[in-house]
Structure formats: structure tokens, C-alpha cells
Amino acid sequence: MLDHLHRITMKALIQAGGAGTRLRSITGDNLPKPMVPINGKPILQYQIENLLENGVAEITIVISKNGQPIVDYFGDGSKFRAKIDYIEENEPLGTAGALGYFAKKCHEDFLLLFGDLMVDIDWHRFINYHNEKKSGLTAFVHPNAHPFDSDLLVADPTGKILKIDSKNNVRDYFYKNVTNAGLYVVGEEVLDYIGEPHKSDFEKEVLKHFIEIGKAYAYSSSEYVKDCGTPDRYESVGKDEREGTVKAKNLSHKQKAIFLDRDGTINVFNEFVNNPDKFVLQEDAAEAIKLINASSYLAICVTNQPVIARGEASFETVGEIHDKMETLLGKGGSYLNGIYFCPHHPDKGFPGERPELKFDCDCRKPKIGMLLQAAREHNIDLSSSWMVGDTKMDVQTGINAGCKTILLTCGDHRPLPKYDNAQPTLTCSSLLEAIKTILEIERK
Ligand SMILES: [Zn+2]
């Protein structure tokens, strides 16, 4: 929290030159897309207010020839207590072209935002990550409800970006739901790389270059960043703003989560799922998780996968199974904010096992290591969270963590006498019923 006492001294550059052709029905012919009103206020103003709340007060806005309404509205920024100036492009220079002009007055790391996004994030966290990684260029990534038509940033476990998986690729494979949101912390070396102003695409040229030299990182967050580029998305952003979801998901505020068991809860119980073919989503899983995504809760999967310790599946295979889960949920318009799994198992002495994973760990449910890790990473208040699963062991996990619990009667019916005394807060017949019940309680 101490960090929040410090103002961020970085400057911000907002790329607000886009034409917004898909929003003509809302903007009329001449209104630039960042001026589209959300509940009576331009989307660009929400961005600027979010930057100001984080102490970022020096802002440069890139405008195109039709950008005069932006200048008329924001002026020099004084009525917003900001210092705003403009770069006007006489001809469109692409998403990175104006950086050449910006380089003439900025010689340090800065923040880059695309002006058609609804944004409410804790920039301190984002910048701290960029600094810790000694990153040259850090992209904000998150799961979204339409990964199948989004550019994905594929990263290694340390967060270093390995490649861009373009939305134009024919994806005949399973993938993680890590979409590029359009917010960056940009290292000053990017400005050196850009040089003189010229037509350039930020993702296809600049980001691609920094990936190739191994200096681009992905910062993953569950905070609210959504584009309003279609009438449907515009409507849903307006609703989220009215309901307070946009602000609530800022990680400077405590979050609440619905923790979901995997086997028998998200996917059909099928003994040990040790390859992707055995993973079949429950019929109502995407619909149920979509309801969580639209609510103020985070959706987080916590699963014991002793198949790894037993040598029946490798870490890579479990990763592929989770890619399948994310791909299928994404096709159903839903996503998980986190997936945590325990690869351990306490009982030694089986053929083929991996001895290094055979120990009494702190993460195997009903221990709460995975929930504690999620709580740290997403700033979650466990006492206002729920644990949903199909075994009494899940119920015991939730109780141990101080969560409310729901036992599902649709999954694994093997008796677990050890946890027979665990009493769930509620019992439901399916995941969908459970989520509807939680959200109903929330409304009261
Ligand atoms: Zn473990």
C-alpha cells in the first residue's frame, strides 16, 4: 500500500486517432471514437481520471484530423487538474507513428493507452511489474469473452512474451485465453527504436521487435479493460460502469472470488483426466462462468492434479488440458481469471511416480495454499468469497479458508469419509444453479 503514497512521475500517451467506423450509429459522422459518451461522459475522460487517480498528470493525446472535439473538450487539461497537450497527425501514421513525435520530448519510460478502451486499473502494480522484470516493453494482458477473435500474447512462465498469436491465424489447436488489452508500459529504448516519425503499427512492428529481442513481457490482471468498438460491447460497458463493476475490479480494492473445483464441477467427472481427450466440459459450465464474469466476482479454478506426481500426466499435458478448458470456455463467451493446480501427492511407493512431487504439500486441497496464492495475486478477501465443488473435500477447503461453500450433487459421488463432517453453506444440483444462487444472495 505504501506505493500508493507515491505519485507516478511517468507521462502518458493516449492514442486517440482512430476513426471508429463501427460506432457510427452512436458517434454520428464526426465524433472521434474516444469521445463516445458512456453514461454521459466521454470514454477518454474515464481514462484520464484513472491516470490522475494514480498521480499521472502529464498526458499527451494523439489526434487525427477530426480530433478537434477532443481539444475543445479537454483543452490544456487545467479544468481536470492535468497537463494535456496534443500531437496532431495530418495523415494517419498507424498506431505507432506518432511515437516519433513523442520521442522528441520524452526521454524516459511512459504509459501508452489506446483511446477507445474503458480502463480502471492500478497503474502502480503494472509499473512495478515492468520494473521488476527490467522489461523493455510490457503489455497488459487478460482473459476476455471472445479470445477466438482476439490477438493472443503467448508467454513463458516468467511472463516473457514468446510470440503473438494473431486472430487471423487458423487456430486448429487449444490456447490460453491471454488477450492483448491495448495498454503498455513502454521503456525509453522503444523511443530510440522508433526514431523519426513514420508510419508504423505498434503491435506488428514495435511489439514484435521487442518480442524477438526477448525484452517484452506480459502483465496479467483481472482489472477492467474493455473496448467499446461494437454497439454490443458499448452497451455492456455502459451497464458495467453504472453498476460499479468497472471501478470495483481495480486491484487497489479488495476483490471477491468464486473458487471452482475442476473435475466434476467445470468438466464432467471422468476418473483421472490424464489427457485432453478425456476433458469434456459440463453442459452448463460456460453459461455459469459467463454469469460470474458479468458479476463483481472473479472466477478462479483450484484443482488437485495428483496425476502429475503419480507419473500419469506431465506438467505439459496438464497445461494442454487447461488450454482446452480455456479454449472451450472462450468459445462459450466465458473465461477464468486464474487456474491454480496442485501437482503433488503425499503417499510414496507407486511405480512410475515422480518422487520429487511426493510430499505433504501446502497446496493440496483441503489445504488452502492455492486459495492463499490466488488471494495474494488478486487481492481477494476470502471471507466474502465462495468455494464451489462436487466433493466434501472442496467444502472442507472452503471452510478452512473462511469462504462460504456450495456442494454440487452432479459430480463425483465417491464417499470421502475423512470429510463427512464438512457442512456446506448450501447444496445445489448443478454449477449453473450454484452460480445463480450466489448472485441472487448478492442482490439481496
Ligand atoms: Zn500441492
Give an account of the 3D structure.
With 444 residues, this protein is an alpha/beta fold. It has two domains: 2-235, Spore Coat Polysaccharide Biosynthesis Protein SpsA, Chain A, CATH 3.90.550; 254-443, 3-Layer(aba) Sandwich (Rossmann fold). Helix content is 29%, strand content 21%. The chain contains 14 helices and 19 strands. The strands form five sheets. A seven-stranded mixed sheet has the order 5-4-1-6-11-8-12. A six-stranded parallel sheet has the order 16-15-14-17-18-19, with helices on both faces. It has a two-stranded antiparallel ribbon with strand order 2-3. Helix 10 runs parallel beside helix 14 (431-443). The longest helix is centred in the last third of the chain and has 17 residues, at 315-331. It binds zinc ion.
Distance between the termini: 32 Å
**Cα-based radius of gyration, to the nearest Å:** 23 Å
Helix content: 25-40%
Could you give the order of strands across the largest sheet? Answer: 5-4-1-6-11-8-12
Structural class computed from helices and strand pairing = alpha/beta
Return the CATH topology of the largest domain. Spore Coat Polysaccharide Biosynthesis Protein SpsA, Chain A
> How many domains make up the coordinates?
2
Shape: globular
CATH C-level name of the largest domain? Alpha Beta
List low-confidence stretches: none
Strand count, sense and barrel status of the largest sheet are: 7 strands, mixed
Q: State the CATH architecture of the largest domain.
A: Alpha-Beta Complex
| Count of strand segments | 19
CATH superfamily of the largest domain: Spore Coat Polysaccharide Biosynthesis Protein SpsA, Chain A
Proportion of strand residues = 15-25%
Bound molecules: zinc ion
The overall pLDDT average reads: 91
